[in-house]
Amino acid sequence: MSGRNPSQAESRRPQTHNSRSQSAAFPPLDLHGLKTYDLKSRPSKVFYEDLGQPLAGDASVGDWLESLPRQLAGNDLRRVRDHLCRAHHEGRTVVAALGGHVIKTGCGPYLIDWVQRGLLSAVVLNGAAAIHDFELAVAGKTSEDVAAQLPNGQFGMARETADAFAVAALAGAENELGLGWALGRHMDELPCQHADASLVLAAYRAGIPCTIHVALGTDTVHMHPHVSGAALGEASLIDFRRLCAVVATLHQGVWLNLGSAVVLPEVFLKAVSVARNFGHNLDGLLAVTCDKQSQYRSRVNVLDRPASHGIELTGHHEILLPLLHAAVACRLAGVAPGRAQAA
């Protein structure tokens, strides 16, 4: 028997009855009588005076900072600047914790300047940051081409880098010296052609805590047979305990998490737990993260859980950190221009 399936034919018929029923049940609402208010009386979040201001070509850095829109990240940048300057003037603890990308993108000199100005109370690095810092100071270069080196088994085989960490690990495991302090002391004894590029060395010479927190198996030096895992672990654990002592002083202080997505947020969280277990007051702690994108651990374990206040600056380190440094430098120098004029 040929012919259409009745059920298929019926399914293709327009559903006129249902459409008319819905139209009758929900006629368009008559909007006459809607209550309104005067625009000027309405609470608003954006005002004319908050708008960004174009500048002339001869504007100063201070003028440029003040010309930024007073919205969102523009306000966050100013808030971080103000807290850093406030903490510096009050003698509060300010810590910079950084991953390797911060050093690789050329931002070490800004942190070194803060160390030399006395703005930073301590610096905290993961293993990658310490390796890049060492290589820049000794050889004037770092960050090898992994894709090119890996097929030949040459990735991470630099002799001087492994030797330095082997020596520092053994020395750092003794007498509660710690890995950061031992590496700084070792570098101070080496002929570092570019010593001014080393944050580790700057912290050592300034006499402030420099702690290095390694995850065994993650750094190139861990592949070398004379680098002792036992010594690295002990030296890094000493640094963790030293960091706990630093974190215990963060009442009204500032913690900067710069480009570490996993290791240092986890280290910070545990150090906060130790400090609070001993009854230290961390009220007023401002935590700041700066990274190319929002990261789960840096947001939750740095901004949300441990801190009284959290600010997230999202963007490239090589742009944001110079901007933040310039903002702080202007404020510390007493440069406080009024609202910049348009060009």
If you had to describe this structure to a student in words, what would you say it looks like?
There is one protein chain. The chain has about 350 residues and is an alpha/beta fold. The chain folds into two domains: about 60-120 and about 250-343, Rossmann fold; about 130-240, no CATH class. It is built from 15 helices and six strands. Strands 3-2-1-4-5-6 form a six-stranded parallel β-sheet, sandwiched between helices. It is globular, with a radius of gyration of 28 Å.
Spatial ordering of strands, largest sheet: 3-2-1-4-5-6
User: For the residues shown, what is the average pLDDT?
Assistant: 92
Can you tell me the CATH class of the largest domain? Alpha Beta
CATH architecture of the largest domain: 3-Layer(aba) Sandwich
Low-confidence parts: 337-343
What is the radius of gyration computed over CA atoms, rounded to a whole number of angstroms? Answer: 28 Å
Query: How many DSSP H or I helices?
Result: 15
Beta-strand residue percentage: 5-15%
Helix content: 40-55%
How many domains make up the 3D coordinates?
2
The gross shape turns out to be globular
| Helix-strand makeup class | alpha/beta
Describe how the helices and strands are arranged:
Elements: H1 6-11, H2 16-25, H3 61-67, H4 72-90, E1 94-98, H5 100-104, H6 108-117, E2 122-126, H7 127-139, H8 146-149, H9 159-172, H10 179-189, H11 199-206, E3 210-213, H12 229-247, E4 254-258, H13 263-277, E5 286-291, H14 296-304, E6 309-314, H15 317-332
Parallel strand pairs: 1-2, 1-4, 2-3, 4-5, 5-6
In short:
The chain is built from 15 helices and six strands.
